[in-house]
Design brief:
Length: 304
């Protein structure tokens, strides 16, 4: 079966961890071990988040003079290459002889997407509120709560089309394990002269759902640091949602910067006839078997 697995940025760098190369290497090694059984049994395509990583690059970038800073589309591309390299290295160590490729992937968005006026996508490290407000004033950031802390948020436009889809399809058909559309892909808009990058970070789960649909995958796994989607998250009555049908899910009832896009992505993929599962990276194999996580699929789905 063709499977698309989306690794959450927080599955690659745990909440509150320092943004060090060593921490990322260790976490990617854990992710690779969790993905290895899927790679051995299925045609696996991997995508991933980049919120912590692109935020780190943006902070490093801030050391330049204002007229020398790099825009977010270039930082998105840098994070794709960085995380793709780490995944290739660890998966290659576990799967000697397996061909693996990371593909920088452009994804088209609309120039007039309303998300550009309402930033929601968290990037970078978390801060105490006072520190976040100071940085926002200094650097013209938009900030928003992230649990008990605060983070920078940037526009997250809707992914419309994967420009490198034909190349991805060719690689998968040839048996290559592909890492692509990382961090939601590189956001570009169409213009008279072709395509140009824009200041945004596309949500990786919505991009992953588009990738899974475009590749006609049978299953789409969103692997994060929680074991399922919860009703009443953060309250004493919180309870996991295990096997909803797409019609039962309302993405607007979940946090816009975290679980909301995952629920929306699962709903879209299931409505197209596939099986989407949201859950913990450690449960990846059991999620595909329908034994863990939140499984969203049509009632007649033959998988999950």
């Amino acid at each position: 079966m063709r499977v698309v697995a989306a690794l959450g940025g927080n599955a690659l760098l745990r909440r509150g961890q320092p943004l060090t190369a060593q921490n990322q290497r260790e976490n990617v090694a854990v992710a690779a071990r969790a993905l290895m059984p899927l790679a051995l049994r299925h045609d696996l395509v991997i995508t991933h988040g980049n919120g912590p990583q692109v935020g780190l690059l943006a902070l490093q970038n801030a050391a330049y003079l204002p007229d020398e800073t790099y825009p977010l589309d270039i930082l998105d591309a840098e994070s794709e290459g960085m995380i793709g390299y780490l995944l290739e290295q660890e998966l290659g160590n576990l799967l000697p002889g397996r061909r693996i490729a990371t593909l920088l992937t452009r994804i088209e968005v609309a120039r007039d997407d309303p998300a550009f006026l309402h930033p929601t996508k968290p990037i970078g490290p978390v801060y105490e509120r006072q520190e976040a407000e100071r940085l926002a004033a200094e650097r013209q950031w938009t900030i928003a709560p992230d649990g008990a802390k605060w983070r920078r948020v940037v526009p997250s436009p809707e992914p419309r089309r994967i420009l490198e889809l034909g190349v991805i399809e060719q690689l998968v058909a040839d048996g290559v394990l592909v890492v692509c559309a990382g961090g939601g892909g590189i956001p570009v808009v169409a213009g008279h002269g072709g395509y140009g990058g824009v200041e945004a970070v596309i949500d990786k789960d919505l991009a992953g759902a588009l990738l899974a649909r475009s590749l006609r995958a049978g299953a789409f796994l969103m692997l994060t640091d929680v074991d399922a989607v919860y009703a009443g998250w953060g309250t004493p009555d919180a309870a996991p949602i295990r096997r909803p049908v797409p019609a039962d899910l309302d993405p607007s009832r979940f946090a816009a910067g975290s679980m909301g896009p995952k629920v929306a992505a699962a709903k879209r993929f299931a409505e197209a006839g596939g099986c989407a599962v949201i859950g913990s990276l450690a449960d990846a194999e059991r999620m595909l078997a329908g034994e863990a996580g939140t499984v969203v699929a049509p009632a007649e789905s033959p998988v999950c």
